[in-house]
Specification:
Length: about 400
């Protein structure tokens, strides 16, 4: 049985039923001893028609191979930048973006129009080296100032507390660290910081350049925030620890925040007695027969009694919090709880913010020009551009 080919150049196809017949063996036939190959594929009905074979093997196309001296370069072929190859080119941790390139083009054009005697072109590599030098100078000098100035000694500022545990003191291998952008203060263990960076440290929202990050469980902005499991929302570490349904994926790193979807609808519908808002998820007073609800962050801000204790019987941490009325009853010497969310900024936070606003004073264009062997007027241009770009980006670091 043969099928005619659609084209004269194509090989004809033949179905040979005799091969199928030769393959079939009766179930009653005794097989000789010897090795056999187990066929796992079930028998297909179309195989009864025959086996498809080629009647003209010479007409089949053959493959051709050739040796190329060098691989071809296609459009869009990626090449490693020269500055990232070990050799004569030094590695920098700053990449020029479109704004940098436009600025360089404008500066070089103005040089040509003004017919400046120096006909050299300001290169992209010079700008990168200068910005990295300014960033390093700024970070080193600010770190030195923080270490020497008396205003930054934590023991002289009673208002400095960890944003998570609300404790004022650190300990060995669990230091209190400040974000270099938003100045939030946390313990290493409370925020999951395994090691303190040499120069600067940024909390998760500041590292992600999210200046409007807010907690989905209390709707408050700022503070010790961590990303949720899918990285699209933020949650205070405090809120994650105090709301029973919420979990933390890695306790050592205190992230990501998980099980947000397990919070029941009844908790989302509670109204905070402090901020009077029906947003996020609230907790309720631990006193018997008391259903007063409030946000975790609101409770800490107004000074409600909120304590965690270890239950040795079940080896777990139990959280107990009390509403304003029961807090006053349990601590009569503390007086009536003032339901005010206005808090006094720590002295250290204010001083750090002042330093951030005046960051450019911790780097000098003349010093950088000497270190990089660069012309002072070029370095002055780079210095003014670096200062402007840092201000536009909200004082965020420009280095990778």
């Amino acid at each position: 049985m043969a099928r005619k080919s659609s084209s004269s150049s194509d090989p004809a196809e033949l179905f040979r039923a005799d091969l199928i017949s030769a393959m079939k063996v009766s179930d009653l036939r005794q097989l000789q001893e010897g090795p056999y190959f187990a066929i796992k594929d079930p028998w297909r009905k179309e195989w009864d028609v025959g086996v498809q074979v080629c009647t003209n093997p010479t007409s089949l196309p053959t493959s051709k191979t050739e040796i190329l001296c060098s691989p071809p370069v296609y459009p869009g072929h990626f090449e490693l930048p020269q500055r990232m190859i070990c050799g004569d080119h030094s590695f920098t941790t700053y990449d020029c973006d479109g704004v940098d390139l436009c600025w360089l083009e404008t500066v070089n054009r103005q040089k040509r129009l003004k017919a400046i005697s120096d006909t050299g072109v300001i290169s992209q590599e010079d700008l990168q080296r200068a910005i990295v030098a300014f960033e390093l100078k700024c970070q080193c000098n600010m770190a030195r100032a923080i270490a020497t100035e008396e205003d930054f000694a934590i023991e002289y500022d009673d208002t400095v507390v960890c944003d998570v545990c609300k404790e004022k003191e650190g300990e060995e291998n669990n230091e209190m660290i400040f974000c270099d952008s938003c100045n939030v203060c946390v313990h290493q263990a409370c925020y999951g910081v395994l090691s303190i960076p040499q120069f600067s440290w940024l909390c998760r929202p500041c590292a992600a350049y999210d200046t409007s990050a807010h907690c989905v469980l209390c709707s408050s902005e700022g503070g010790a925030l961590k990303a949720t499991q899918y990285g699209s929302r933020w949650v205070h570490v405090n809120c994650a620890l105090w709301i029973p349904e919420v979990g933390i994926g890695n306790i050592e790193k205190m992230e990501p925040i998980t099980k947000i979807e397990d919070i029941p609808t009844t908790r989302w519908n509670l109204v905070c007695c402090i901020c009077k808002k029906k947003q996020g998820a609230c907790i309720q007073c631990s006193a018997n027969n008391c259903i007063v609800s409030y946000h975790v962050t609101c409770g800490f801000k107004v000074g409600l009694e909120m304590k965690s204790r270890l239950d040795a019987g079940v080896l777990c941490v139990l959280n107990e919090s009390y509403c304003p009325r029961h807090t006053t009853l349990r601590k009569p010497d503390s007086g009536r709880v003032q339901l005010s969310l206005e808090t006094k900024k720590p002295i250290k936070s204010v001083r750090l913010q002042e330093m951030e606003d005046d960051f450019y004073s911790y780097a000098s264009s003349n010093e950088v020009a000497v270190e990089l062997n660069m012309k002072p007027r070029y370095c002055e241009l780079f210095y003014n551009y670096w200062k402007l770009k840092r201000k536009v980006t909200g004082h965020h670091l420009l280095m990778l």
